[in-house]
Amino acid sequence: MAPSIDPLPLTPATPAQPAPTHPDRLRVNRSPKAFASGAYSLIDLPAGAVFAQITNPTPGKKAYTTVQTGPDTHIQLNSDLVYCNHSCAPSVVFDMARMEVRVVDDRPLKAGDALTFFYPSTEWEMDQPFQCTCGAGDGLCRGWISGAGDMPPEALDGYWLNGHIRAMIDHK
Prior knowledge:
Structural class: mainly beta
Radius of gyration: 15 Å
Largest sheet: 3 strands, antiparallel
Order of helices and strands: EEEEEEEEEEEEHH
Shape: globular
Mean pLDDT: 90
Helix content: under 10%
Low-confidence stretches: 1-6
Distance between the termini: 30 Å
CATH architecture: Beta Complex
Strand content: 15-25%
């Protein structure tokens, strides 16, 4: 489970930092360190609840800032949702068929929780594979994250996966 943190006040927008896109739902903790920023919930929601709709996406080429929506398609989120990081014990799912972010089905979301999703649930092949440091206990951390295509099917058991990932697994 991702560690909870105390909510911090929102930082006012500056020209280099655009206004928050979901100011009633999430807070972005920006870090000058590469890949160290993150998004945190400002609200409590029950398991399975919709956290946010994905609105105003634009098509994009596979990049670390995109989300895969189909076998050969990616989108730029164009919102603070881009700060949702990976975890092998995620707090939300990115349902690309419904264009929504939902709380995981097995536990509620609490204000202050890190907003994380399991990247292989949307990504067949990561643009920038990485060594996971999520700290998920009980052997849940999957270690090297390079996308669902590089993972044995049993390593994906128990995770919510988008339809395009399930279809690609079946085709593999």
